[in-house]
Amino acid sequence: MSLLEVAGLGVRSADGRDLISDLSFTVDAGTRFGLIGESGSGKSLTALAIMGLLPPGMTASGSVTLDVPGRGRTEIVGAGERLLNRLRGRTTSVVFQEPLTALDPLMRIGHQVAEPLRRAQGLRGRALKTAVTAALEEVRLAEPDRIARAYPHEISGGQRQRVAIAMALACRPALLIADEPTTALDVTVQAEILALLDGLVSAHSMALLFIGHDLAVVSGITDHVLILKDGKAVESGAVLDVVNAPRHPYARELVGSARELDAALDRLGEGERS
Amino acid sequence: MSVEQALVGAPDGEGPKAATRHVSRSVTLTIGCVLVGVIVLVAVVSLFWLPFAPEDTSGGRLMPPGAPHLLGTDKLGRDLLTQLMIGARIALAAGAGSVVLGGAIGIVAGLAAGFATRWLDDVVSALLDILIAFPTLLLAMLVAATQAASLTSAIVAIGLAMSAIVARLTRVLVKRVLAHDFITAARTSGTSWPRVVLEHVVPNIWPTVSVNLALQFGLAVLAEASLSYLGLGAPPPNASWGRMLQEAQASVFIAPVGVIAPGVLIVVLVIGVNLVADGFRDVADPTRRRRR
């Protein structure tokens, strides 16, 4: 049984434009699904629609259902705030693109990580402090106690993203949504964060919905992908099928440019060696 | 780069320039605190001890400074130092009262306006703009005309005018904070709106709002002095610095101390408050504070 089922999802802006139309896909428990598209294609909106967090003025249509333990299939589109708040963090959780703005600049890291732990697991005092340290250790932050006392501007971009991941994982969600989690980072840090996500998702057998614009990055971490263009799905399937035999012209273009970049890098490498 | 370097080498940077800037900030704060502290001390002392009774006119009219009247007497023969000490009380009460009133109304209204969307937002901001365009003194005169002139009516008038300014600032700050990902991030982890406001919105707008409130305190002191000068402030025998100025201006060439002394005190308090506000900004905002 699928964990997340998006069926005929549409998102309309306040002035009546269709930002996403007729989008359907499913994510099974423990699997990894990639959403690929250029900026403005509606990837992040899809994530927000799944969380029931569309910006004011936007309306969703269609259906987004989640399999919630002890509650069965739950419809997100049109659900009340109380119900959504219970699901958020526990069933689904998000890691955002920009780690600096995703953390409250005026709150110490430890406090921010403690917040979801306190609410979801009811921890207090010493137990809470231990849990915060453990959460920071889990995302491979050296010196977790010092990081816990720091403010977001006092740590590096990669460290911030690790903190954001720790917060997203705090309630052990069944589905983790990663919205371009590596786009704002250096390439070397990107690889570390991807490896970290990969490991954690496997370790907790979570499902992952990975959103990105870079075919190489997304196909590296997911097993199924869906390519979005202007709010419409243009191609979807297993990663290998899409990469090896893209059908839609836009998908072919994406794969082509990824291959071109690869080839260019290879040529550069050869040039250096000769 | 080690973690330690990454930590310290944050955007505001180390280096000698950052250090001097930091020092000058704390100097600002210190000078401001001393200036305000002196006025507060005078006001507190005035509650327990005054050189002469406020209504004591036995000293003779317009006496020059000297014993027993250290700063001389006014045109009714009252001791000037006594009047000034009571005036400190009035000035501080006016500043604090209007900041509390204006701050409370302004912050609550601003928070509500910050969350309003579309037409409601337009209506609220138009309303605030109209209120702000309305001169404080005119508003105060209206309040004083309907009520009797008193310190309370002056505080109400100044506080109301201030609340519109505070509300507009708060509204903009709230809108800016709400646009940040960390609000969405808090929401994605299931934080309810009231909690988001208390835990994230208020702490993030507070550094700016509190500095603005401190600046408003100085403006409120000036406004009270102006109202009293116009006869719309605290009525006698409560000596207000503004009314002392007005009463002494006719005899400025005979007894200049009567004008200079309250004038200097107004300037000292307002400058002091402004310096405190300026220095306070760094204390209130951890992103400006250097790591201990």
UniProtKB/TrEMBL annotation, chain A:
Locations listed in the record: Cell membrane
Domain of life: Bacteria
A GO term for molecular function: ATP hydrolysis activity
Membrane topology of this protein: Peripheral membrane protein
ATP-binding as UniProt keyword: yes
Assigned keywords, A-Z: ATP-binding, Cell membrane, Membrane, Nucleotide-binding, Transport
Record-linked PROSITE patterns: ABC_TRANSPORTER_1 (PS00211), ABC_TRANSPORTER_2 (PS50893)
An example Gene Ontology CC term for this record: plasma membrane
ABC transporter domain ranges (all copies): 4-255
Similarity comment text for this entry: Belongs to the ABC transporter superfamily.
Name this protein carries in UniProt: ABC transporter ATP-binding protein
Organism name: Planotetraspora phitsanulokensis
From TrEMBL, chain B:
Name this protein carries in UniProt: ABC transporter permease
Family assignment from sequence similarity: Belongs to the binding-protein-dependent transport system permease family.
Source species of the chain: Planotetraspora phitsanulokensis
Keywords in alphabetical order: Cell membrane, Membrane, Transmembrane, Transmembrane helix, Transport
InterPro entries xref list: BP-dependent_transpt_permease, MetI-like, MetI-like_sf
Lineage top rank: taxon: Bacteria
One term under GO cellular component: plasma membrane
Coiled-coil spans in chain: none
Topology of this chain in the membrane: Multi-pass membrane protein
Pfam families: BPD_transp_1
Subcellular location: Cell membrane
Gene Ontology process terms (BP): transmembrane transport
Residues in ABC transmembrane type-1 domain copies: 88-277
UniProt keyword annotation of Cell membrane present: yes
Transmembrane feature ranges: 27-50, 90-116, 123-145, 151-170, 213-232, 252-280
Keyword Zinc found: no
